[in-house]
């Protein structure tokens, strides 16, 4: 897999996952060459934060306590006496401040400061320093204490992609114990890439095939009586439904796409059991045809999954998606999946 092509494809994957990247202001990034994923992500972050600054940085009401010369909010009598602020004709007051020091702005500032400690392009470093001027009243966070679970509404929806880019950047950096500088990993790790890979596939099918119903449903167990809390939850990554057919796609991004059994390459057994359970339990409550597909990101292994079986009356396959080719070729691979499973359709 050529690194430069793979990095460029990360941009395309992100552009499907976050449609804002398909806007004119971001498109030129897809033509630039980046040495690693964090260079790409930092360039996206700079552009996104610049756009957000023009719109206005998010503010929220935060409780603030300070000595002031007039009554504002709630007076803290005990603290005013303790600090003898009355002698200076001041009161200790607690009040709500409509502040730029919001939690999401703290994450952004923390991420930009981390990037300044890493080996990134000089032009990006300069841009980040300029952007930090707008974050003077914003605190920073400890990396390990950041809470990434955010709620987005119409007031802060524009922050969703920015925070997710911050997440990918921070999780793609490792601490250098000797001098405190940050080292850039050549690729984002499996867990982070798996999330992006799954979101990319979901949004690709949803955008390119509007006639197909694309969902990520929970699947009920086919049991008599009510399911109890001891049964594991079945949550499908992607389900495509069209004219009485359903295809369950389980996105897999592993360093090794096959397991070894006495030196013989086989499909990961847990993956196969999982997709089989999804298919059979969904089929029990659906009148049409249900199929399953384990879709692995292709690795450099000599043998990669490329199989299809009929199990218990249902088609179940394991395929590999090559992300190391031009994006046009990735599109062909994905379109073939649709064509092979919904043969009435053809792109």
Automatic annotation (TrEMBL):
Superkingdom: Bacteria
Statement: the UniProt record of this protein carries the keyword Mitochondrion: no
GO biological process: DNA restriction-modification system
Any single Pfam family the record assigns to this protein: McrBC
Keyword set, alphabetical order: Endonuclease, Hydrolase, Nuclease
The keyword Plastid is annotated on this UniProt entry: no
Name of the protein in question: 5-methylcytosine-specific restriction endonuclease system specificity protein McrC
Lineage, uppermost ranks: Bacteria, Bacillati, Bacillota, Clostridia, Peptostreptococcales
């Amino acid at each position: 897999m050529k690194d430069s092509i793979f990095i460029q494809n990360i941009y395309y994957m992100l552009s499907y996952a976050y449609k804002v990247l398909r806007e004119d202001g971001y498109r030129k990034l897809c033509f630039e060459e980046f040495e690693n994923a964090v260079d790409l992500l930092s360039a996206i972050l700079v552009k996104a934060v610049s756009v957000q600054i023009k719109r206005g940085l998010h503010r929220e009401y935060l409780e603030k306590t300070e000595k002031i010369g007039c009554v504002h909010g709630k007076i803290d009598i005990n603290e005013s006496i303790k600090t003898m602020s009355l002698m200076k004709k001041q009161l200790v007051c607690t009040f709500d401040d409509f502040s730029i020091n919001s939690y999401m702005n703290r994450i952004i500032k923390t991420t930009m400061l981390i990037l300044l400690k890493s080996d990134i392009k000089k032009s990006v470093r300069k841009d980040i320093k300029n952007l930090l001027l707008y974050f003077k009243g914003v605190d920073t966070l400890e990396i390990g204490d950041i809470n990434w679970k955010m709620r987005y509404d119409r007031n802060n929806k524009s922050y969703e992609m920015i925070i997710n880019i911050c997440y990918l950047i921070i999780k793609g950096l490792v601490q250098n114990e000797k001098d405190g500088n940050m080292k850039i990993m050549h690729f984002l790790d499996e867990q982070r890439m798996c999330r992006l890979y799954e979101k990319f596939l979901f949004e690709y099918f949803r955008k390119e095939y509007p006639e197909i119903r694309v969902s990520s449903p929970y699947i009920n167990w086919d049991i008599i009586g009510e399911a109890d809390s001891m049964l594991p939850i079945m949550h499908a990554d992607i389900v495509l439904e069209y004219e009485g057919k359903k295809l369950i796609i389980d996105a897999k991004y592993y360093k090794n796409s096959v397991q070894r059994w006495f030196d013989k390459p086989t499909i990961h057994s847990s993956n196969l059991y999982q997709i089989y359970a999804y298919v059979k339990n969904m089929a029990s409550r659906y009148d049409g045809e249900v199929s399953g597909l384990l879709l692995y990101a292709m690795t450099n292994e000599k043998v990669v999954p490329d199989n299809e079986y009929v199990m218990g009356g249902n088609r179940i396959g394991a395929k590999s998606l090559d992300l190391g080719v031009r994006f046009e070729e990735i599109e062909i691979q994905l379109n073939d999946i649709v064509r092979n499973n919904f043969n009435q359709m053809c792109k």
